[in-house]
Design brief:
31% of the residues lie in helices and 16% in strands. It has 535 residues and is α/β, with parallel strands linked by helices. Helix 9 (243-259) links the parallel strand 7 (223-226) and strand 8 (264-267). Bound molecules: calcium ion.
């Protein structure tokens, strides 16, 4: 704890004197208006990621700019206006390094970009253009393993006396995670093509710290999504979230904050809930709250508030300050609208849950228009559906993989014209989130509703109170009544006005800071979400 406090002090001091921070200057220093604009007027050290809405992009599938059928950095530049209109102010790019695979999670060179995606100059241009719009960019950092074709591993495997031999984990053991190499078996948790790096070797740590420094300082990214964070160091039979892994991340945190106090990391700890998130405090800035994501999606799918209310019980107990990343589904999971059997009304409710909740939300590209997709993985990472033209407007050439056939109906161009579309709801929700700070960092209280088909929360701060009310069911609900069990509101009569449309609800009477038996509307429409401001 003491270490943490010291670090926060150090962080504040560094922020206070950013221009004079004695770090090595990048070889080609590029002005960063976005960072300057946010750094100067800030009076409180609120981290930028607390106000961020992230957009997760699989570069290969987002937008092809040169007709080779593969998405690229220049394609993202062409779509920055779209990203801005969506209300995202940060991007997470899935791996951008050279790789033998289509997805890139087996890296060949940590200091280069995938030539299929463009040149390093193209990437720098994307950074500059994004920063000019106030959009931050983080990239996937694959620490746990390299490609088996990475020169380090090739050398390590070629010769048992290679200086890189001890960069990987060798044994005579056999079993699920062991793969036959030259002179022994090597450990690769995911598969033989991804040998795990040996973080008990300080040379490996030093190398990956240099990679981190390079991208933060020389290139200027704003942070990293850390792939497979929980798998970093094994301790015998314990292969996830080990003490050694936590110790490693503590040092890593100190390291990257010393390079750039404003750098952000979000760890992928697959399946983690709030309790595990507390274990990574002071080691990453955030981890993804998978428990909450399941709660969002399961409650909408199952038309019952039990999943989400259960997830809130754990999250509020363990991390009441919203310091985690939220999402519905990501590139490793079936797309949310497919989980919801193609029901667009349900997809809208899921969007409301995500974007009215605490935490830093991540939208997976295409989710905002209801792109479908079930595994295999390639099919949850298909080309973005921009319009009804050939190949969905993704490429003028032959796409690396065909877009989903739904693109003639489900696409950005069509939804932009339709005020009631899923896309326009996402835009409205991100705008609400930007305009009402209480939706980002206000407290959350789960309300009693007297009906498992009704979900209701109060977002509360000193300056603002917002009530979110959802009928999760496909039928109208008349039998419900809201209760606030904690004394947190000001006594008196509050007017209750919709932030989404012109709906006016019944006044709310507060006594002793609480209320009970409140029915804002006589009828809750099927699959309908209401967002009310109390005054
Ligand atoms: Ca291309």
């Amino acid at each position: 704890m003491k270490k943490l406090i010291t670090l926060f002090l150090l962080t504040s001091i560094l922020i206070g004197c950013t221009p004079a921070t004695p770090t090595t200057l990048p070889p080609t220093p590029e002005p960063d208006p976005a960072q300057e604009a946010t750094a100067a007027p800030e009076t409180e050290p609120a981290a930028w990621w607390r106000d961020a809405v992230f957009y997760e992009i699989f570069v290969r599938s987002f937008q092809d700019s040169d007709g080779d059928g593969i998405g690229d950095f220049n394609g993202i530049v062409q779509r920055l206006d779209y990203i801005q209109e969506l209300g995202a102010n940060a991007l997470w790019l899935m791996p951008i390094h050279p790789s033998p695979s289509y997805h890139g999670y087996d890296v060949l060179n940590y200091y280069a970009v995938n030539p299929e995606y463009g040149t390093m100059d193209d990437f720098r241009k994307l950074l500059t253009e994004a920063h000019e719009r106030g959009i931050r960019v983080i990239i996937d950092l694959v620490l746990n393993h390299t490609s088996s074709q990475h020169p380090f591993f090739v050398d390590a495997n070629r010769d048992v006396n290679s200086p890189y031999r001890d960069w990987y984990i060798w044994s005579n053991e056999t079993g699920n995670y062991w793969h036959q190499g030259n002179g022994g078996n090597y450990y690769g948790f995911f598969w033989g093509g991804m040998p795990d790096l040996n973080y008990r070797n300080p040379e490996v740590t030093a190398q990956m710290e240099e990679v981190t420094r390079y991208w933060l300082e020389d290139i200027g990214v704003d942070g990293f999504r850390i792939d497979a964070a929980k798998h970093l160091i094994e301790e015998g039979a314990k292969i996830e979230n080990t003490e050694a892994t936590h110790e490693w991340f503590k040092e890593f945190y100190t390291f990257y904050k010393s390079i750039e106090p404003d750098a952000y990391t979000v760890g992928e700890v697959y399946g983690a809930g709030a309790f595990l998130a507390t274990k990574y405090a002071g080691q990453t800035d955030h981890i993804f709250n998978f428990e909450l994501a399941s709660g969002f999606v399961n409650s909408v799918a199952g038309e019952s508030n039990t999943g989400i209310n259960g997830a809130w019980a754990f999250t509020l107990k363990d991390i009441s300050n919203g310091n985690y990343a939220t999402f519905l589904t990501n590139h490793d999971q079936n797309r949310v609208i497919s989980v919801l059997n193609g029901n667009e009304q349900k997809a809208k409710l899921a969007a409301v849950l995500l974007l009215t909740s605490p935490g830093t939300p991540f939208i997976y590209y295409g989710e905002e228009i209801g792109m479908q997709g079930r595994k295999p993985d390639e099919d949850i990472r298909l080309p973005m559906q921009w319009n009804a033209d050939v190949n969905a407007g993704f490429t003028t050439g032959t796409p690396w993989r065909m877009p989903d056939a739904s693109y003639t109906q489900v696409n950005v161009a069509a939804q932009e014209k339709d005020p009631g579309s899923l896309l326009n709801l996402y835009r409205m929700l991100t705008r609400l989130r930007a305009e009402h700070p209480v939706l980002r960092d206000g407290n959350l209280t789960v309300l009693e509703t007297g009906n498992s088909g009704v979900y209701a929360i109060l977002r509360h701060s000193d300056s603002e109170d917002v009530l979110i009310l959802i009928n999760l069911k496909g039928t109208p609900i008349f039998e419900y009544s809201l209760g606030l069990p904690d004394a947190i509101l000001a006594d008196g009569t509050h007017t209750v006005t919709s932030l989404l449309d012109t709906t006016q609800a019944n006044n709310l009477n507060i006594t002793g800071g609480m209320f009970t038996g409140y029915r804002p509307l006589a009828e809750l429409h099927p699959y309908q979400a209401y967002i009310f401001k109390l005054k």
